[in-house]
Amino acid sequence: KKKRLKPENKRVWASLKKSKDDVIREIAEECQRRDPEQTKTRVALTAGEIALQQRVLKLLPGFRLILDFLHVMQRLWKAAHVFHKEGSQQAEGWVKDRALRLLQGDVDGVVRGMRISAARRKLRGKRLETVEVSAAYLERNRHYMVYDQYLAEGLPIATGNVEGAAKNLVKDRMEGSGMRWSLDGGEAMLRLRALYLCGDFDAYWDYHIDQERHEIYPLGMSTL
Question: What angle do CA 134, 140, 142 make, to 5 degrees?
């Protein structure tokens, strides 16, 4: 087997104190620093939260917004369990068929089929609401679900790496048994953890020691 390629110059970070807007602006600054000529394709993957999507579109101009496919799958499963028994092969087949069609770019067809199926079964109440909420979610986000094009261009369509980073950066270090954090203490730990995971901790520590030395000995050190 070929070794899996690893990301180069990866950077992860998180903040307890900064707002979402501030963190997204940091992303924009990081991208501009790395690619000032804007020669690379810039992609932002999000869930379907409208407020977050609006922030990304406003604060990250030039980025292509992609709806996370894992969240799409969650919506499909909810609808499937209205039409078929949970855990059944019929439900699994229903989701597999719709997922493949979405990956092929047929969002409108999937949405239309869900609503037709609900009408034919004369669904009412909560069952109808579950199907309609899922269908409306897909319909509203169809412009960010051109998965056939994304895949053809080699772009990511799921946030698994982000979810993994959140677990590795935040949860594994910050949510241990009996741990309690102040806001300032938690923020400081997250920054150190991020430096470590990005492979920059040694360089940072050398910088930290150098700054400490200059603060203690502003005129330089002399040897007796």
Answer: 100
